[in-house]
Design goal:
It is a single chain. By secondary structure, the protein is α+β, with helices and mostly antiparallel strands. The chain has three helices and eleven strands, in the order ββββββββββααβα. A six-stranded antiparallel β-sheet has the order 1-2-3-10-5-8, with helices on one face. It has a five-stranded antiparallel β-sheet with strand order 7-6-9-4-11. The protein is globular, with a radius of gyration of 16 Å. The mean pLDDT is 93.
Length: 172
């Protein structure tokens, strides 16, 4: 049995990596699947005050988040928490989840995606927004189908928006 060669060493210094905007939060690309043999990808997400990532689920990957600045709220299934710097959370595939800035200052988190691949969805969204505003519902549907992403409108969302004084993205 032959072993696959290890991926080349990848070095990303602080402040390096392409950046983009996803509509409510930012994205900074740190490690792509090509850097890890497809095992994981790593991005950072800055969360402005009031930012909400609407409820969604992934059908192909799990996400692992580490809060590095501020406070970020997470709801996954029927569990809700707010984490500060150094807090970790898992968001398993197939479970509806949302995230938001739960504080009064900008926040930031590292997102580890396993297996890799979903970072390309972030890139496509950022490119669409950079090319002329919010994507159409049809464009979002095509992108969601391509990456196994599903959206939901759970009963708990209005309460979270009100409690944390969030600014929902259009359509939420």
């Amino acid at each position: 049995m032959t072993e696959s060669p290890a991926p080349l060493l990848t070095i990303v210094r602080p402040g390096e990596g392409a950046e983009g905007f996803l509509g409510s939060i930012g994205v900074a690309f740190k490690l792509w699947g090509a850097d890890t043999g497809g095992a994981v990808s790593v991005v950072e997400h800055p969360f402005p005050v009031g930012a909400l990532v609407p409820p969604h689920l992934h059908t192909r990957e799990d996400e692992y988040s580490i809060v590095t600045e501020g406070e970020i709220g997470f709801r996954s299934g029927d569990r809700e928490t707010v984490l500060g710097p150094g807090g970790y959370i898992t968001k398993p595939r197939g479970e509806l989840h949302a995230m938001w800035n739960a504080g009064s200052v900008p926040a930031r988190m590292i997102e580890i995606i396993s297996p890799a691949g979903f970072e390309h969805c972030f890139r496509e969204i950022a490119d669409m927004l950079a090319d002329g505003g919010p994507p159409t519902e049809d464009a979002v549907a095509v992108l969601a189908a391509k990456y196994g992403l599903e959206f939901g409108r759970p009963d708990w969302l209005p309460d979270v928006i009100a409690r944390f004084d969030l600014t929902p993205p259009p359509g939420v």
